Amino acid sequence: MPSASRPYSSPAAVIDSDAMDSAAPAVTVESINPKVLGCEYAVLGEIVSHSQRLQHELQNKPGFHPFNEILYFNVGNPQSLGQKAITFFREVLVLCDHPPLLDKSETRALFSGDAIARARHILDVIPGRTTGAYSDSLGVKGLRDAVAAGIASRDGFPANPDDIFLTDGATPAVHIIMQLLIRSEKDGILCPIPQYPLYSASIFLHGGSLVPYYLDESTGWGLEIAELKKQLDEARSKGITVRALVVINPGNPTGQVLAKENQKQIVDFCKSEGLVLLADEVYQDNVYVDDKKFNSFKKIARSMGYEDADLLLVSIQSVSKGYYGECGKRGGYMEVTGFSDEVKEQIRKVATVNLCFSNISGQILVSLVMNPPKIGDESYESFNAEKQGILSSLARRAKVYHHSIIITSLLSRFCVRLCWFIIQALEDAFNGLEGVTCNKAEGAMYLFPRLHLPQKAIEAAKVINSAPDVFYARRLLDATGIVVVPGSGFGQVPGTWHIRCTILPQEEKIPGIISRLHAFHEAFMQQFRD
Ligand code: DCS
């Protein structure tokens, strides 16, 4: 009989909690789930924790460090580094969040006509016309319709709203797919190395095995089918059931954009090997080179003549990246095609456990990102100017030359000398450092330079039980206030060392960052040169 004080406890739970009354602490690090203990996420790992300590010291002990601000190069979080939100998106969100504004006479003067019309339309499809209620667990039907329409117009192939699950950013989509596929450590997921550490963390948390495949740094982080096949066969020979292939395109941390032919090979590979293709396409709007274009895997598969049932494909997208950079709003979708209705029903069931799988503002935002203003709409020109401004600035930061103006007062306050320095942007700056090579960022938001560290530096790192790239990143932070992520967090070919940095700091800050980087690196190499 359940006790009156714990009416719903099972007998076992009653016994366990009685045992907890003893002196030993109920929860210790040793007694928590080892999967939680062992899971790591380098993007916000030990270097970031150290930077937070330094940030605190900068506030409390001014002048204590040789820099006066911490420069966060570690996270792809555009608005935290000054990127402005797209006006049209925010206007629609504000109006949807506060519908009485739609009836005010001033609103027409403050908001664009198409933002008002869009907000009215969106409210019409949201049951209860409010962003404050739970929606259908998979997302508001009318917003899934809009996302499907956006995908269809992007790809030129139809999309079914019943295949769309709206999510709080891309992260929950990855977790739900891992939860679906991983039954035990005998289930493996083929993952690129280097990879975005959400994948290693999620596979670990769900108790599966990460089956690595290496991207080839010497060919600009190329994805070779022979390497996929080799790793797949090796995993199978060890008794691992490989269930899915993760492809991040454009790549994080590598910045590579897959060529169409390569994507076709990947589709064929997944089809013939019976693998789910988990296509992380969150950087679909971040391509900076003229000779490459983003193509969704769905479009590639359909253009090869494959029907829905021919390929198990999950494509994920997020409002956090692109030119929108709305990381804090938490919106995204996954498009799940090729799965049976029974399996999709199970995904739906798990989504219902979350009540409302995605917050409503995130749902609205992803519907806007997939259906931005079109030519002829009142907002189009200003929207397009904002979008192109952000994308071209990102492209410049990734590769192109930019100018730094140094204004030096020389003789008197009336005599100002303008020195124009053409400083190579980040990629070239890294390539200009002794022992550093950096591939071109074709897309996404990062550079992943390789550090050829002197043996003495590798040994010094070993003495303090640190990986050489962690050692380097820590020294860089202590000397300059620049926060980067050590390559070990993403995985790398053993014996190679990298760091990842975003291309997001505002352009005017980059010359200062580059000169700090140069000075640090020279001193580091000087100290440890063999
Ligand atoms: N997939 C990739 C490839 C990512 O880079 C990220 C975030 C996500 C999924 C998850 O994003 P959301 O959950 O916000 O949609 N990238 C992190 C990174 O590497 N730096 O900043 C965030």
Give the CA-CA distance, first to last residue: 74 Å
Helix content: 40-55%
Shape: globular
**Poorly predicted runs of 5 or more residues:** 1-7, 9-15, 400-424
By CATH's scheme, which homologous superfamily of the largest domain applies? Type I PLP-dependent aspartate aminotransferase-like (Major domain)
Q: Spatial order of the strands in the main sheet?
A: 2-8-7-6-5-3-4
CATH fold-level topology of the largest domain: Aspartate Aminotransferase, domain 2
Largest sheet: 7 strands, mixed
Cα Rg: 25 Å
Average of per-residue pLDDT values: 89
Q: What is the percentage of strand-forming residues?
A: 5-15%
Distinct small molecules bound, one entry per kind: ligand DCS
Structural class: alpha/beta
Write down how many β-strands occur, each being a DSSP E stretch of 2 or more residues: 16
Annotation field: number of helices = 19
